[in-house]
Amino acid sequence: MMTRRNAIKATALASAACAAAWPGRSQPAAPAVSAAPAATGPFTLPPLPYAYDALEPHLDQLTMQIHHDKHHQAYVTGLNKAVTGHPELEKLSVEELVRGLNGLPEGVRTVVQNMGGGHYNHWLFWQMMKPGGGGEPKGELAGAIDKKFNNFAGFTDEFTKAASGRFGSGWAWLVLGPGKELSIESSANQDSPLAAGKPVLLGIDVWEHAYYLKYQNRRPDYIAAFFKLINWDFVADRYNKLKV
Ligand code: MN
Fold first, then answer.
1. Which stretches of 103-220 are assigned E, i.e. beta strand?
2. Is residue 175 part of a domain?
């Protein structure tokens, strides 16, 4: 006789078989580069990797508190709500959800794009900065940047243009293209280039919530401050792992 518990197990196994065949998962997987936040849903808000005031004076404590505890939390909560009741989605990591976005059922695609993208982008964004960051990258990433943008100043110019030129809410990115080449792009809202197969190495959040308390309408000042916070070791580590 099948107990209720066994019936639940059987259902879970059937869902696992379904998930394996789900088209979003058949795309080539970018290797994971660091411990993902809660591997699968329900997702939880990962703590900031430093204190709220650690990025002062470039990013103020109150902005960091609201941005992390309220905005990032809202994306996590929204993502959990979106995948609940979809067993084939509940077992995916946020990175798998974002990478496989175009293969998701139409009814959940937009909300996962916004909420899953929001969770994934912010999880990376916190790690892309650190107290005492900035300066220039070293190692192979430095060589790749020089090759693509002539020099670090060339990279800085192009990245700044992408970040200041993004109209409305969104992000600017340094991404790794299909041929493992570097490029700079920007995206609207919480869209991640990963959904188009391009893992991100570095990104800046240019939603007003990221800077308005301290910088108001002066987005260029915020972008300049961000360059003093970049955790180039983290970015170089992603590059070294993702380019192979
Ligand atoms: Mn944000």
1. 170-176, 182-188, 200-205
2. yes
Residues with CB in 5 Å of ion ligand 1? 205, 207
- Answer yes or no: is pLDDT of 2 > 70: no
**Can you say whether the dihedral through the CA atoms of 55, 203, 230, 184 is positive or negative?**
negative
CA of 171 to the centre of ligand 1 (A): 9
Parent domain of 167: 139-242
Map tokens 């999880």 to a residue: 123
Q: How open is the CA angle 195-78-169, to the nearest 5 degrees? A: 60
Mean per-residue pLDDT, 84-106: 95
**Which residue's structure tokens are 């992603």?**
238
- CATH assignment of the domain containing 166: 3.55.40.20
For ligand 1, the distance from its centroid to the CA atom of residue 119, given in whole angstroms, is 9
How many angstroms does the Cα of residue 204 sit away from the middle of ligand 1?
9
> Token match 């808000």: residue?
45
Burial of 211 (0-12, 13-18, 19+ CB in 10 A): buried
Question: Which pLDDT score, from 0 to 100, does residue 36 have?
Answer: 56
pLDDT at 15: 40
Whether the pLDDT of residue 56 is over 80: the answer is yes
Q: What is the pLDDT of residues 101-142, one digit of tens each?
A: 999 999 999 999 999 999 999 999 999 999 999 999 999 999
Structure-block tokens of residue 202:
């570095």
Amino acid sitting at position 65: Q
Using the mean position of ligand 1's atoms as its centre, give its distance from the Cα of residue 37 in Å.
17
pLDDT of residue 40: 72
191 Cα–ligand 1 center, Å: 12
Its pTM stands at 0.84
**Is position 89 within any domain?**
no
